[in-house]
């Protein structure tokens, strides 16, 4: 990575961290599920600089958030979950968009990213994340919430993030393609 990429990843990580602070719950869902738009800068980083840049943005925003806000468990279980959810959203989106570089391709890529994130995070929540909260915080077993709450929440979160990203992408597509083309030359 060159200096421009490193600086850009740092800036996008900072923006992602700030967006992560602006989280909010959605009505009808458990109060521990929050939506934020911090995956959008990570997706932009992945599209411009490659998948490792997107992963780094996801990593740095979560590390910053953990050190600044802490964790109820003392262990960053929620931050690890957020990191995994972000990666599961941006990587499939990036990989499919690289094959179909159109607006329709991006729509399909975002759909794939949303479904991948929702399904795999449901599995991870059932087997690892929710049992970790049960063990560390002595919560009751919450795995019964995976299908009625966590899966629909992640689908809705993906749809909302995808919609906002598409509004940005329509304006930025030519610029992203230009930067990516110049970078690859």
TrEMBL record:
Pfam families noted in UniProt: ECF_trnsprt (PF12822)
InterPro entries, A to Z: ECF_trnsprt_substrate-spec, RibU
Transmembrane segments: 6-28, 40-60, 80-97, 109-129, 149-170
Main localization, broad class: membrane
Gene3D superfamilies in the record: 1.10.1760.20
Protein localization: Cell membrane
Keyword line: Cell membrane, Membrane, Transmembrane, Transmembrane helix, Transport
Membrane-related topology note: Multi-pass membrane protein
Family membership noted in the UniProt record: Belongs to the prokaryotic riboflavin transporter (P-RFT) (TC 2.A.87) family.
Classification via PANTHER family: RIBOFLAVIN TRANSPORTER RIBU
Function: Probably a riboflavin-binding protein that interacts with the energy-coupling factor (ECF) ABC-transporter complex.
Protein name: Riboflavin transporter
């Amino acid at each position: 990575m060159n200096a421009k990429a490193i600086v850009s990843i740092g800036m996008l990580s900072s923006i992602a961290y700030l967006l992560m602070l602006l989280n909010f719950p959605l009505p009808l869902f458990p109060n521990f599920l929050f939506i934020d738009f911090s995956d959008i800068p990570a997706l932009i980083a992945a599209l411009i600089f490659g998948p490792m840049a997107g992963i780094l943005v996801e990593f740095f925003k979560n590390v910053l958030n953990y050190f600044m806000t802490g964790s109820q468990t003392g262990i960053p279980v929620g931050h690890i979950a957020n990191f995994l959810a972000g990666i599961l959203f941006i990587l499939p989106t990036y990989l499919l968009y690289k094959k179909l570089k159109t607006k329709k391709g991006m729509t399909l890529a975002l759909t794939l990213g949303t479904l991948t994130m929702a399904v795999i995070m449901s599995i991870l929540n059932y087997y690892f994340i929710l049992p970790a909260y049960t063990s560390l915080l002595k919560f009751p077993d919450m795995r019964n919430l995976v299908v009625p709450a966590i899966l629909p929440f992640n689908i809705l979160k993906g749809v909302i993030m995808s919609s906002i990203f598409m509004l940005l992408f329509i304006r930025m597509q030519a610029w992203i393609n230009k930067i990516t083309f110049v970078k690859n030359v």
